[in-house]
């Protein structure tokens, strides 16, 4: 069911972006908003995985282990997204985006290999994503539609930086454990907006999907040699945003403000990323001129 929904969403994104790419008409000239723009989003996101536990990233088949489970802290953690670009008065443009999320979470769990051992310690989540895209926008009445396509670089690291959890001897965990994924590939995005009268405020919904091809490295004391490598790992990265935006004139320029709910989903072919997810809220401030 999940795969069907994601495939349908991907088809909508591609179809929308393709139709906009062939559109020749300009925006309504009396409502043209062309020029340079830049903005920053501050995000509060909670990390989550499909398998809440030590086995998801750090446990790889320890002999005789009867139980390996646990969970991460449920606190929202901060991240940043920067965006800058240019759009002409016919809605054609280009932009660059950078997303950074680097936080340390508390982990609480248990490993039972005959004698229960508490697993307590920090887990670091480090994400860097860069997008370079061409955009096309059209406007009809109070409706706005924008499509984008380009290239993406993405990196996701989930590690135990201390090299061992409290309760496990240093001889067992002799080095950092976790997963390190890095890849590049295409990305497509679609945005739909609805203006609320002449107030300068609109409702917006955004969807984005990136297809990354790269290498994943898993470090674990339970693996032969301590390391496993997954070459040519295929990963889908989904992002969705729903929210409200408003524009205000300031000294001949335009200030852009926004508030959104956001979710991200990393789905790797081998499952090594454990269906990693982020969800939370985002606040945006930008300037157009």
UniProtKB/TrEMBL annotation:
<feature type="signal peptide">
    <location>
        <begin position="1"/>
        <end position="23"/>
    </location>
</feature>
<keyword id="KW-0732">Signal</keyword>
<protein>
    <recommendedName>
        <fullName>Outer membrane protein beta-barrel domain-containing protein</fullName>
    </recommendedName>
</protein>
